[in-house]
Design brief:
D-Maltodextrin-Binding Protein, domain 2, five-stranded mixed β-sheet, about 55% helix, alpha/beta
Length: about 425
């Protein structure tokens, strides 16, 4: 019966919602986001299309780089010219805005539509709920724990495709000898820390990540395992080309798509770039979650809605929030984005082999992995990432020195 009800919900909610919205009249909304790559633009256009199909106008303000986009949003709010909606990550990035009373509560629509009943996993509710009210809309689930593999490059190099980080390190010299770049990387702090986190989670697991990032357990941090992860991270440096500094993540993805590089360690949003290029999962490229145990992170994106004194703006914001969680819109958006929907009652029949892997894993609570920014403030995350970036880029920065500096962050109270 529940499954039948979910099917009915998927079929009928979009129609009734659209009719009600059109009856309410034309609405205009400006949305700030940082989705500028080909795959990302294909995804955000699904939101824009759904909004415009309801008879409204979508004003697209795309700003390259998450920090730039978030900074613009905050400055616009402070300056008294806020957008209708703005993208943030699933994290604590927008807590200050909530505490300062700058964001519109979405509790009215969340309660009316039963968001707490269908948002999955429930940890996403914790991200958006403050003092019993919703202040953001989770629109997807992104996991970082992926290796993207050009199958033809491995075939030409005559080596087996890896299932672990260490297996990749073992075959990377042969890939170099065959004339390919083994590992495509964009040398930006967030990409470097993402790659390190994949090394850590794929070799040491979910519980260890929680002990270090969540519990701030210095004894676990100092038991020798973190040092090994740092050394593995450094070992990967030998297989990255000199053009990495400043490279955007999607440019690194393109290197794998085009057969210039063998592997990229990047989140599942890379799948959108392969899709835009017409590549087929498991045929042209492979997607691997490295490690003996498989995890999917609870990263992803949310939209927040800056508060306005105009009651008409609130009406627009609540309509847009409702549109974003609509099951049909969720299916269309996430299939283009490469991410997973934040509800299980959507049509995933168009999912490719890589998305299907994620959909199966996310149903298992033991496979869900919290990232550092789920536990910690932006100040902590930035300080931690600064150490990792220096460690990757300065060969004279020893593992021991990095461990000391990371422990200082761990015990700083940030």
């Amino acid at each position: 019966m529940k499954k039948f009800f979910s099917i009915l919900l998927t079929l009928f909610i979009p129609l009734s919602f659209t009719n009600a919205s059109k009856a309410a009249g034309h609405m205009e909304a400006e949305v700030i986001h940082w989705w500028t790559s080909g795959g990302e633009q294909a995804a955000i256009s699904q939101f824009a299309k759904a909004w415009e199909d309801m008879g409204n106008t979508w004003i697209d303000t795309a700003i390259t780089g998450g920090e730039n986009a978030r900074g613009t949003t905050v400055n616009r709010i402070i300056g008294g010219n806020p957008p209708t909606a703005a993208q943030f990550n699933i994290s604590k990035q927008f807590v200050d805005l909530v505490e300062q009373g700058q964001l519109q509560s979405l509790e009215e629509v969340a309660s009316a539509e039963g968001w707490r009943d269908f948002i999955y996993p429930k940890a996403l509710i914790e991200t958006c709920e403050f003092e019993g009210e919703f202040y953001c809309v989770p629109v997807n689930i992104h996991s970082s724990q992926w290796m993207w593999i050009n199958k033809e490059v491995f075939a030409k190099a005559g080596v087996a495709e890896p299932n672990t980080i260490q297996e990749f390190i073992n075959v990377a010299p042969a890939i170099q000898d065959a004339g390919f770049i083994p590992l495509a990387l964009g040398g930006q702090p967030w990409q470097e820390s993402l790659m390190f986190d994949v090394v850590l989670s794929s070799t040491l697991g979910r519980d260890y990540s929680r002990q270090v990032y969540g519990d701030k357990d210095v004894s676990a941090f100092r038991d020798g395992r973190y040092e090994l992860a740092l050394q593995t991270f450094r070992d990967l440096n030998k297989f990255i080309d000199e053009g990495a500094p400043g490279r955007l993540w999607n440019e690194a993805t393109a290197m794998v798509v085009e057969g210039k590089a063998a592997v990229q360690i990047m989140g599942d949003w890379a799948r959108g770039e392969f899709a835009v290029a017409g590549k087929v999962a498991k045929e042209d490229y492979n997607c691997v979650i490295p490690g003996e145990e498989k995890y999917v992170g609870l990263g992803g994106d949310v939209f927040v809605f800056p508060k306005s004194s105009d009651p008409k703006v609130k009406e627009v914001q609540l309509k847009m929030a409702s549109m974003m969680v609509n099951p049909t819109v969720q299916a269309n958006f996430n299939n283009a984005k490469g991410s997973l929907p934040m509800r299980l009652d959507v049509d995933t029949s168009a999912a490719d082999a890589c998305m299907t892997m994620g959909l199966e894993l996310i149903k298992n609570p033991d496979a869900l992995l919290k990232d550092s920014d789920d536990y910690n403030s932006p100040a902590f995350v930035n300080a931690w990432d600064d150490v990792l970036t220096e460690f990757r880029n300065d060969s004279g920065y020893s593992v021991a020195d990095a461990m000391d500096d990371l422990e200082n962050v761990l015990t700083s109270g940030l």
